[in-house]
Amino acid sequence: MLGLSALELARLQFAFTVSFHIIFPAITVGLASYLAVLEALWLIRRNPVYVDLYHFWSKIFAINFGMGVVSGLVMAYQFGTNWSGFSQFAGGVTGPLLTYEVLTAFFLEAGFLGVMLFGWNKVGPGLHMFATALVALGTLISTTWILASNSWMQTPQGFEIVNGKIVPTDWLAVIFNPSFPFRLMHMTLAAYLSTALFVAAAAAWHLLRGRSTPAIRKMFSMALWMLLFVSPVQMVVGDAHGLNTLEHQPAKIAAIEGHWESDPNATSLPLIAFGIPDMTAEQTKYAIQIPYLGSLILTHTLHGKITGLKEFAPQDRPNSTIIFFTFRIMVGLGIAMLLLGVGGAYQRWRGTLYQSRLFLRFALVMGPTGLLAVLAGWITTEVGRQPWVVYGVLRTQDAVSNHSALTLGVTLVLFFVMYFLIFGTGIGIMLKLVAQVPEQHSDIVPSSGTLQVHRPARPLSAVPDNITRAPQRETKEV
Fold first, then answer.
1. b/e per residue, 391-423, with b = 16+ CB within 10 A?
2. Do 341 and 362 meet the contact criterion of CB atoms below 8 Å apart?
3. Pick from 286, 279, 280, 289: which is nearest to 255 by CA?
4. Region 52-56: what's the mean pLDDT?
């Protein structure tokens, strides 16, 4: 199909499903923590604005959570259908890690999600806060297990190969592999930034239409504080992640940077800001270089060097043409996020945070960039690992199932159609909810220590107890 081999179609199919899936957990992780913060702030300050925002975003969270679960199930099945070689070889590690995610995170989320969404006026405020916090914790635990599995595939350790299969020998080494802490922190912060940008864009959309309610202003302000403080932290974590990748996956770094030669006479390494890597010609064409900056960024010294891509066998090289650009897209969007946070601080200082239409348009345009950066980062990570599924241990060509190109091509087309129908509808519903103004809950009774949203449980329970009897008319005999 389209001149692609079965292996290429299998990779494309998994890339499509994982790219579609990852946007939902990213928002789920961020929104769950955001909802926990909103409810905690209400309990502390008794400001009904936090309740308005909680109910507004909890509806969006519920839809997003459901789509994340469904899209994740498809990926789990693909390990068996399209990548049976990988499952047979490395299932002794990846299988238990994914099982631990279900037993801890998924059961925790499922157990308390109902209380969180439907128990607001049925349980006490403390118990409801507890449920919200555990759902947020469950999303973080889920992230931990998924990233442990993916990080092990990038930097495998704690195992031995017995009879052609991987057998774990040290579970602590498997889980806490060399790249795990950096990937976990980097992905978690990316989820928080993606959610902050989503929330900020929603608020900016309303503000541009003159809907400057207290709830809208509050969500805009909170999102911009998150961007201001988390964006620079993400850059520091990303730098540490890069140093770790240079140590354990030097070919990936060489491909990302577009460096082909290892010149022993060079005194430093320039940064190739732009160019077009050519895998056939083994060079980066039209390169625009900045002297010394490559050494400074990659090694934190002025004279550090890295191994050029030509030093690796051609069959062991990642595709530099792809990850050279995806990495720069991710970094460029990260810089734009920091600029948005700093711009918000400046507008706040001027007293025009909610009035500057130019800044509000900037925030609106930046709405999807968090998810775009996540996708660019994952493409860089996964394509940069090639041609390995388990880095240095199992090649991708040895992990794929024995399917024909026609079978994979037809199923890929079906995935395209079904995903855009089902998840396109879900995303459309989410955006319609975002377009609504948060409702005001005027029937809050903060002095009682509980939040009461009075919704009748029975038909007559809506009738107040203290009914004043209407005066009866006097009747006269005719």
1. beebbbeebbbebebebbbebbeebeeebeeeb
2. no
3. 279
4. 92
Over residues 330-374, the pLDDT tens digits come to 999 999 999 999 999 999 999 999 999 999 999 999 999 999 999
Residue type, 38: L
Buried b (16+ CB within 10 A) or exposed e, 19-56: ebbbbbbbbbbbbbbbbbbbbebbeeeeebbbbbbbbb
- Per the model's pLDDT, the better-predicted residue between 474 and 314 turns out to be 314
Q: And the tokens for 379?
A: 């493409």
Assign residue 400 a region: left if phi > 0, alpha if psi is -120 to 50, beta otherwise? beta
Residue 211, Cβ density class (10 Å: 0-12 exposed, 13-18 middle, ≥19 buried):
middle
Mean pLDDT score of the chain: 86
Residue with the two structure tokens 């912060």: 189
Stretch 16-40: mean pLDDT: 90
* Residue 445 pLDDT grade (very low, low, confident, very high; cuts 50, 70, 90): very low
Contacts of 253 (CB under 8 A, 6+ apart): 242, 245, 246, 298, 306
What is the C-alpha to C-alpha distance for residues 197 and 325, in angstroms, rounded to an integer? 23
Q: Which amino acid is at 39?
A: E
- The one-letter code for the residue type at 193 is L
* Burial class of residue 436 in the structure, from the number of CB atoms within 10 Å of its CB (0-12 exposed, 13-18 middle, 19+ buried): exposed
Q: Amino acid letter at 151?
A: S
Q: CB neighbours (10 Å) of residue 11?
A: 20
Q: Report pTM.
A: 0.88
- Six token digits for residue 320: 């530099």
Residue 270: cis peptide before it, omega within 30 degrees of 0: no
Which residue is it, tokens 């991987």?
Answer: 166
Span 255-308, pLDDT tens digits: 999 988 887 777 888 888 999 999 888 889 998 999 888 889 888 888 888 888
Whole-number Å distance between alpha carbons of 183 and 209: 39
Q: Report pLDDT digits (tens) over 191-240.
A: 999 999 999 999 999 999 988 889 999 999 999 999 999 999 999 999 99
